[in-house]
Specification:
Number of strands: 21
CATH class of the largest domain: Alpha Beta
Radius of gyration: 28 Å
CATH topology of the largest domain: Beta-lactamase
Helix content: 25-40%
Shape: globular
CATH superfamily of the largest domain: DD-peptidase/beta-lactamase superfamily
Amino acid sequence: MASADTHDNLTASVVSLSEKTCMTPRRFAASFAIGVMALMGFGSIMFAMINMDPNFITGDGYPVRSPFAAVRWQEYQPEVKLGEEWFKLVSLDEIPASEIVSFSRRTYGNRWHKRFEEDLVELLTGMKHPPQDTVTLVVQSLTSSETSVREDVPMTYANRRAIWNAAHERTTAESRRERVAHTAVSIDNTEQFRKRIDEFLHLAQVNAGFSGVVMVARGGAPDYQGTFGFSHLASRIPNSLDTPFRIAALSQSFTSAAILTLEADGNFSVDDPVHRYLSEFEAEAYRGITIYHLLTHTSGLPRIPEDATGRARWVAMSRAPTPVNDYVRLACECPLKFQPGQRRLYSNVGYRILSALIVRITGEEYADFMQERLFEPLGLRQSGVARISQPPDEARVAESVSRVSLDSRSSEPSFVSTDSGQNYGSGYGSGGIYASANDLVRWDRVLAGDRLLSAEQKTRLFQPAREYYACGWIVKKSGLDGRVYQTYTGGNYGYFSRIMRIPEDDLVIIALGNVRKTDDIDEVLDQLFRLCRSLPYRDF
């Protein structure tokens, strides 16, 4: 980046040049044409280099080469094309194919297919086995099941480019696929409404790898219930309306309600400064932060620590059984993004601090307090807080899965179990809660009544502070149908959640999933929630 002095010198040079040279329209046109020709010439040279040089190097320093002419997948088993024949890949340079796939999944997340197909040199180098110009492959014939050894198979740019072109064509075809627009169907037309959602979600399962549950209810009575995929692949246990899912940021709706119950008990006012209860916040920079600022994401604290050291500590803490007080200390090392109350900035840090506040006030562990004060008395039997000790009973929570392929014969997606390495207990009140769809309908009924919160407290809970953010909820008026809705979403390493309450219709829409949230899943949820609100929607 140029310094300010350099910028001034460049400006001065341009001004001096313009004073000496009169740029006529004809001269400008000629200069422009020359510039375009130069760029085209440079592009042609680069294109030629890429296509002629079999050892072309990417910006990351890895040759773009492959020993396969094409790659396809059966679940997470790669099948590779050598010449004109397809084989099951057994090993490459004595590295089992399963180990290569496993490393790619652990290292690159939802990009692991691309890394295997298009960046094989980088992938193998990351495994400490950088390939030479030729490799040895052990492959199994798909027709005879005979295993053979192919020695000195060349790594070529032509192969890699063929794989890249095939992937690009698939992506282009998917993006150009015509989306079908559908007219609205009224929720009161029960049979047609349920049929539409079923058709939509089965398409979502095939095209986007949807795995989870959807529930639509009015006044607590279901208008639609749908379940898709498995909660545990090895045992083939299907997802159900009682399956607990990790709900990520949707946890904040429970934490905010817990804070308001403690206020009602006389423990504090949410307008109190945080430092009154957490002494770590007594430093001048943090003294202006109130409990309400934390509830509404207006404290000035960042989403997560932004400096390299703080971010590294945050990542390490999310993978270990980290006491909540450690997050308090880390928060007070984060520079504020703005003065408290001035703006809104979503902050996971802030809701960890609210968890710590509950611990300091009650003397109980956050998970114990939530179980005793909210989940158990309210009958939320499939809900709880993941504990940092990760006890065995949490095995009933749906496991995270990743889509790996689509079986062309059955049009059913294939999944593999994934382990993000996260300790979900360290999410506490910002993302550590799990719940079932049935429990979230019960939660909706709690919020509709006065069993937990008074009318005054619920007004505070759902009153936006800035940019539609209330206490653990987003509340705004729809530009589509004029109704006020209360909503929140969550998504983390292999889970997604979304809830929308429309008080005017006494309607709640819930979607929970145990597959990583992608752009396709986001589009599925956007259109699904339009359909469920009796609005026009599109396929995806």
